[in-house]
Amino acid sequence: MAVLGAGSWGTTFAKILTDGGADVVLWARRPELAREISEARRNSDYLPGVNLPVGLRATSRLDLALAGAEMVFVSVPSQSLRENLKQVEPYLAGNAIIVSLMKGVERSTGMRMSTVIEEVLRIDPARIAAISGPNLALEIAKEQPTGAVVSSSSLDTAQAVAKLATNRYFRSYVNTDVIGTEFGGVLKNLIAVAIGIVDGVGYGENTKASIITRGLVEMTDFAVAYGAQPETLAGLAGLGDLIATCQSPLSRNNTAGRLLGQGYSINDVVKQMQQTTEGLASVKPVLELARAKGVDMPIVEQVRQVLDGTLNPRDIAPHLTTDSSEPQGERTLDDGQAHGGASLWRAFQRTLDQLRHGGRSAGSPRP
Length: 367
What we know:
Elements: E1 2-4, H1 8-19, E2 25-27, H2 31-40, E3 57-59, H3 62-66, E4 71-74, H4 81-88, E5 97-100, H5 113-121, E6 128-132, H6 137-141, E7 146-151, H7 155-164, E8 170-175, H8 178-201, H9 205-225, H10 230-233, H11 236-247, H12 252-261, H13 266-272, H14 278-293, H15 298-308, H16 316-322, H17 341-356
Parallel strand pairs: 1-2, 1-4, 2-3, 4-5, 5-6, 7-8
Antiparallel strand pairs: 6-7
């Protein structure tokens, strides 16, 4: 196995695979970091205090990292994925499975990471998988138990990856809903920024619980509009990741939001963050994608206004929790909106109704 990217999550996932019995090479861009990982069994920049397994090897040479790799796990900043893939392509084995560990959308195109991989490498989607879930790197590196979802259009691919990405403290489940799995990982970052903002302002648990709950509605409506299954957003890649990212000080998106809520400018926040904060980069492309499908995302829209400096962070919570001045249903089907989970629920109701009436719609005449 090869893992590309020796940040906190890439290094942690290399540890997961190694602890599960795989032969792993971790690619680090900086030679000094590769040496520290291989010789000292540490990554002090990103995982302080964590001992890495003896079997884990690291290199700063892409050709060595990819030599003979049957699976390649990619953990680089989402906005640099396309360029990284162009460098990777000459060294890839012809049948290698490519696994995305990233949670973002490409800012210039709005594409999900798996679709960028498919486009750049020109490979069958059945050879691509994505992993998502409540995966705060430092906790997992310390071997605190958790789960994740491996998703691929090919169930065989998802199962093959999940089998390798499972050990005594990390369990991988599978699904074939790549759209829902990837968008869950993207969208929860935006809600986590909102939670950080209200936390930085000083609002309490009621406010945060309201935003998390309403945020899940926004996430589900958006993902379903793009073809996801609503059940995926209620699972590890949606609700599970949302809870972990919103409540933990280890979350970069939560931390960035908290700094914004305390009055720091977006430029100051970016300077203070030592690693890429995917949520900040994803706000505008996600809103563009939402508008293209007619999906309302008031929470994400308010985050955008805070980032742009057009909304005082202290004014964010009333807007987030009310959406508009008119009473609304808690779910989209309650107030008659046609998008998202509502249309799916109505289809389910029609099917159930037909079953009740012997295959006919209610009210239709008997033959």
